[in-house]
C-alpha cells in the first residue's frame, strides 16, 4: 500500500534559509548589472538557483556532526583516514589523494598522465575538464554515441562512449598518442545521461587492448548507478552500492568532485588502484593542493565528505533525488518546453535551438534563453552551448557544438516540488513570449573558461530578423 502514496522528501528540515523574490523590474536591473552573465549575479537576487548542483547540497545532521570532530593536523590527519576508508568501501580504490574540488583532481591527474600533443578520449568532456586538458597542450576528443546529439532520442544510455569510434581513433593516431580514456558518469554536457555497465566493460576491454589508462569522472556515480538500476533489467535486483562498486571495478581510478555525490559543499579527490601511479601523482598533489592527508581541505571537510559518500548510496534518498528531476522534466514537457530526452539524473536540459528557432547559433541562443528565464521568474540556470564551448585554442575559431542547451541543475536536498512548480511556470511564460527574445553578443571575452566571467549585451529580436 505504501507504494501508492505520493512521493515525499525522505528527510525533515531542521534549518531554513529565507529567500526573496525580486520584482521583474528589479531582476532586469540585476541582469543588466551582471552584464547578462548569470554567474555574475548576486545569490540574494536569485529566487530559485539551478545554476549548478555542485557544492550546493544541503548537508545532513550526520555531516554537520562530523564537522565537529575534524582533525586539523597538517599531516597524518585521522579525518583523512576516515575519508580514505570511505572511498575504498564505496568505490573500491585503495589509494586516495584529497583535493579542494573536482578540478583540483583533474589538475593532479592530468599533470601526471597527459603530455603535450596527446589526446584524452571521453564521452563528452565538461568545461573544466576540457580546459585542463588543453592547458596541458593536449586535445579533448568527444566520442559519445551518436544518440546523445539528438534531443528527441530517448535511448536509456545516451552517455555511453562509442567504443568502435574510439578504437578507430586510437588506430589512426596510435596508442602512444592517447594519454587516457576518461568516461564521465553521468555525462553532464550531453544532458546528464547515464552510462551503462556493459559500456564501461567494453571500454575496459578497449583500454586493455591498447594498454591505455581508463578513468572515470565519478562525481555522479551514485546517480548513474540508480539510473542503471532503473533502466537495465539485469540490474533491477542489485543495490546501488553494488552497482557503484562494479562500475568502479572496471576503471584504473577516478576523479571525483565531492560537491556532487559526496553531498558536501567543498572537496574532491583522485582515487587510484595502482600504488606506483599514486607515487607518480603524489608530488603534483603536494605542489598544487597541499599535503597528501589534507589536499587543500580542512579536516572537518574531509569528515563531511566521508559521511556523504555513504549517505549518497541510500535508495530512498536517490529515489527522491532522481525522481524530483524526473518530475520537473515531465512538468516542463507537458508545458510544451523543448527538452533533451530522456530525463537525466541531476538536471533538466532545455533545447535552446528549438526554443528560440529564430536566434542563430552565433547569437548564442542558450545564453539568451538562460537570461530570459531569470528575467521571467528569478530562476537561474546555466548555458551549455556555444559560449561554454569556447574557441579552439589552435585556430582561435568559435567551436560550434551540436547542442545548444540550458541546464537546470537541481541541488540535492534543497528545494521542494513546489519550487519546481515555479520553475515550470516560469518556463511556460518564457515560452509564450519567445518571439520577443533576441540573442547575445560578447562585450568582454576572457581567453580561458570565458563563460564564467564574460560580459554580454543583448541583440534585439528585431535586429536578428533584419539580418
Tell me what the structure shows.
- The protein is an alpha/beta fold and 467 residues long.
- It has 2 domains: 2-53 and 315-466, Aspartate Aminotransferase, domain 1 (Alpha-Beta Complex); 61-311, Aspartate Aminotransferase, domain 2, CATH 3.40.640.
- The protein has helices at residues 24-33, 61-67, 78-91, 102-113, 127-135, 163-173, 197-210, 221-231, 240-249, 275-288, 299-311, 315-334, 352-355, 365-377, 386-389, 417-432, 461-466, and strands spanning 48-49, 95-99, 119-122, 139-142, 178-184, 214-217, 253-257, 268-272, 347-351, 379-380, 382-384, 405-409, 439-444, 455-459.
- The strands form 4 sheets. Strands 2-8-7-6-5-3-4 form a 7-stranded mixed sheet, with helices on both faces. Strands 9-12-11 form a 3-stranded antiparallel sheet. A two-stranded parallel sheet has the order 1-10.
- Helix 1 (24-33) crosses helix 14, helix 4 (102-113) packs across helix 10 and helix 6 (163-173) runs parallel beside helix 7.
- The longest helix is centred in the C-terminal third of the chain and has 20 residues, at 315-334.
